[in-house]
């Protein structure tokens, strides 16, 4: 009744193949964008930014990146944390070497550097398949973290081995460093999320995205019908690492401000992003957002329930969190392998018929 | 013989011993993978869980004590008894078999026929679940595990070998625990091979590994075999947990031995028991020698974290199925 496609006619191919073919979806999209850009920056508080919104936006970028590689191209990667570290350290080196250049350009450039590194580590995928490849990407994870720990050039020979984001301005407002206001951090992240989601959406529905999906569904068959596996796999690695690198740069420069590589970009981070796309939905941009939101919200919600309501000590709640996340992963893989995105689709299907289901 | 050369040999021997332990963990992976096609990432956490349960039972800890105390405001910690090591090991084995049954019943029975990568991701979920469960049941503090294994360097090996080199060579330093661990691992590996070659259950296991449907059609219960295999993997995990736990205490880092075993598997091939053993030895020796010859002097040390992976990666580029794996045949 409220959600319907009846009467929404298309008279051209362009109109038929747009991102949001239904008018209602389009309205929903623009309302969301207006709230995100026009309302939230004015009402955002420090707690909301640092506990929920900024990590959600950054993880959403990382999840979109991994979803392109794993969900669309079928190459499972466990090296996300390592690639985020590349983005963070590239951003740090650029920020300190060229302090006059705009930070937004630095973040984009660090995405580009990560794309190059990711492509290099993607080369074995041409020969290694399935979870042999998944394990091979762990080589990237461990090697990169070790590299940033040991080679002091990367952290400018600082004694602590940490990297700290210096203050950088965009249009006169600080977006990095300890003095940056919550709304500025939020807006920078939102800008990159919008950019990445737009790029990802348009890549995945074009010929590049179709060649990725062909490789995912059956690579030999794809090769026979004329998809170049070299180009498809490496472009997936490059685009995916580009997004993951941007997420890493934002995670370091905007969100945390100071980073120790083993702690912030360890293998746990790789698994976290992988869980986001499993729970959210493999091969879905919306799913990347849903999964990121879910796994950012879950610890906060558990903390409120466990610590504040039940009065449990925090370590107990942390253990419970592990149990619940693990159980949820198994539950989703068994009951809903397509994730939250599929549940959302089912809900829309139900809404379409409500209140007169047949 | 020069002292440097002898130290090189000492590194080699220690590498071989570490390699046997890697092989032991890798074996747990191979068992499950061959029988059910599941690549069990949770193997390392199973080792941690086994060791935690063992220490908990030995010291008479109350399971979930922390949770019970937090909920009801009580102060219970111990039953007030101590279980001898052998009895505790037997009890822990019972727990591991129960765990195997539950994993089969509640998780992997519902995932039969899914793609391998989905199963792999499910085991990552299982690893998280089990890790949290272990912490909830027994607490997350570092525990000492003492089942009566000898500790410390072996004096007589040092004394015997001291005469080999010049004045600045003091003999090989070899940990007694490592020697025991090597021995136990060797015994376990041999008995597992015997089990799978000469017993009825072992034959059934190999039949399932060969072809699920054919095995079903001659009357082998897949469910039974899978529970058996998970129990065996639990046994292997428990042994690995005891060895590593006795060495460095029972704590979270114990579960990271799974990450050590992954390159071993890639190198040896996921489907081959000899592959796991040879792969373990190559990785063990390779990473110790690399650290000794190149890593520590030139690269700033701690190369052991990634060397195994890079080595396995290079191997895989030339042999995508590992050294001993079955040839990958792809059909459209």
UniProtKB/TrEMBL annotation, chain A:
Please name the InterPro entries in this protein's record. ABC_transp_permease (IPR001851), LivM-like (IPR043428)
Signal peptide (from-to) = none
Q: Where in the cell is it found?
A: Cell membrane
| Keyword annotations from UniProtKB, A to Z | Cell membrane, Membrane, Transmembrane, Transmembrane helix
Provide the Gene Ontology terms for cellular component. plasma membrane
Q: Which domain of life is it from?
A: Bacteria
- Quote any Pfam family the record assigns: BPD_transp_2
Name the major location.
membrane
The protein depicted here goes by the name Leucine/isoleucine/valine transporter permease subunit
Q: Which organism is it from?
A: Thalassobacter stenotrophicus
What does the organism's lineage look like at the top?
Bacteria, Pseudomonadati, Pseudomonadota, Alphaproteobacteria, Rhodobacterales
Automatic annotation (TrEMBL), chain B:
| UniProt-listed CDD domains | TM_PBP1_LivH_like (cd06582)
* Compartment(s): Cell membrane
Q: Which UniProt keywords apply?
A: Amino-acid transport, Cell membrane, Membrane, Transmembrane, Transmembrane helix, Transport
Task: State the Pfam families in the record.
Answer: BPD_transp_2
GO annotation, cellular component aspect: plasma membrane
Transmembrane stretches in the record are 12-33, 45-65, 85-104, 111-130, 179-199, 220-244, 264-285, 292-318
InterPro entries named among the record's database cross-references: ABC_transp_permease, BCAA_transport_permease
Full protein name: LIV-I protein H
Which species does this protein come from? Thalassobacter stenotrophicus
Organism placement in taxonomy: Bacteria, Pseudomonadati, Pseudomonadota, Alphaproteobacteria, Rhodobacterales
Q: Which gene encodes it?
A: livH_1
């Amino acid at each position: 009744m409220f959600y319907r496609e009846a009467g929404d006619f298309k008279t051209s191919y362009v109109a038929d193949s747009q991102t949001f073919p239904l008018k209602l979806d389009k309205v929903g999209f623009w309302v969301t964008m207006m709230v995100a850009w026009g309302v939230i920056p004015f009402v955002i508080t420090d707690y909301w930014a640092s506990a929920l919104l900024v990590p959600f936006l950054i993880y959403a970028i990382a999840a979109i990146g991994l979803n392109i590689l794993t969900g669309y191209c079928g190459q499972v990667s466990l090296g996300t944390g390592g690639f985020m570290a590349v983005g963070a350290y590239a951003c740090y080196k650029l920020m300190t070497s060229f302090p006059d250049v705009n930070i937004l350009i630095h973040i984009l450039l660090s995405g580009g550097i990560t794309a190059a590194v990711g492509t290099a580590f993607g080369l074995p995928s041409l020969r290694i398949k399935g979870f042999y490849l998944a394990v091979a990407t762990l080589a990237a994870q461990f090697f990169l973290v070790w590299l940033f720990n040991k080679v002091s050039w990367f952290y400018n020979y600082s004694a602590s081995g940490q990297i700290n984001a210096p203050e950088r301005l965009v249009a006169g407002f600080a977006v990095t460093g300890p003095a940056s206001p919550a709304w500025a951090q939020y807006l920078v992240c939102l800008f990159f999320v919008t950019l990445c989601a737009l790029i990802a959406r348009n890549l995945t529905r074009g010929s590049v995205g179709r060649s990725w999906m062909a490789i995912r569904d059956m690579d030999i068959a794809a090769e026979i019908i004329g998809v170049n596996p070299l180009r498809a796999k490496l472009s997936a690695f490059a685009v995916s690492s580009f997004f993951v690198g941007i997420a890493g740069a934002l995670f370091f420069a905007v969100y945390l401000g100071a980073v120790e590589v083993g702690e912030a970009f360890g293998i746990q981070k790789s698994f976290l992003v992988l869980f986001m796309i499993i729970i959210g939905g493999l091969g879905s941009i919306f799913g990347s957002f849903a999964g990121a939101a879910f796994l950012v919200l879950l610890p906060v919600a558990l903390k409120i329930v466990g610590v504040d309501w039940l009065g449990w000590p925090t370590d107990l709640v942390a253990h419970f969190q592990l149990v619940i996340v693990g159980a949820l992963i198994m539950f989703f893989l068994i009951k809903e392998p397509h994730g939250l995105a599929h549940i959302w689709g089912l809900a829309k299907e139900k809404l379409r018929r409500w209140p007169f289901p047949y | 013989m020069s002292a440097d050369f002898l130290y090189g040999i000492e590194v080699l021997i220690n590498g071989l011993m570490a390699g046997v332990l890697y092989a032991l963990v890798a074996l747990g992976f191979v068992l499950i993978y061959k029988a059910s096609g599941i690549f069990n990432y949770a193997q390392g956490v199973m080792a941690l869980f086994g060791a935690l349960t063992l220490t908990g039972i030995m010291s008479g800890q109350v399971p979930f004590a922390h949770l019970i105390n937090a909920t009801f405001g009580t102060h219970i910690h111990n039953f007030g008894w101590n279980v001898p090591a052998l009895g505790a090991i037997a009890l822990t084995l019972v727990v591991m078999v129960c765990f195997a049954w539950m994993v089969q019943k509640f998780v992997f029975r519902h995932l039969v026929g899914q793609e391998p990568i989905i199963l792999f991701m499910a085991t990552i979920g299982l690893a998280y679940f089990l890790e949290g469960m272990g912490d909830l049941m027994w607490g997350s503090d570092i525990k000492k595990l003492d089942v009566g294994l000898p500790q410390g360097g072996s004096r007589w090996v040092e004394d015997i070998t001291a005469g080999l080199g010049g004045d600045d060579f003091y003999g090989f330093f070899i940990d007694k625990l490592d020697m025991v661990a090597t021995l136990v691992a060797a015994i376990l590996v041999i008995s597992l091979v015997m089990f799978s070659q000469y017993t009825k259950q072992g034959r059934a296991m190999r039949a399932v590994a060969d072809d699920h449907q054919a095995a079903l059609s001659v009357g082998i219960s897949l469910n039974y075999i899978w529970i058996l295999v998970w129990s065996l993997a639990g046994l292997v995990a428990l042994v690995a947990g005891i060895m590593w736990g006795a060495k460095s205490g029972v704590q979270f880092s114990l579960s990271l031995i799974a990450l050590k075993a992954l390159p071993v598997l890639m190198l040896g091939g996921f489907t081959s028991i000899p592959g796991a053993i040879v792969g373990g030895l190559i990785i063990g020796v390779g990473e110790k020698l690399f650290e000794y010859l190149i890593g520590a002097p030139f690269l700033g040390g701690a190369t052991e974290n990634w060397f195994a992976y890079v080595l396995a990666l290079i191997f895989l580029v030339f042999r995508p199925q590992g050294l001993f794996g079955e040839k990958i045949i792809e059909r459209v």
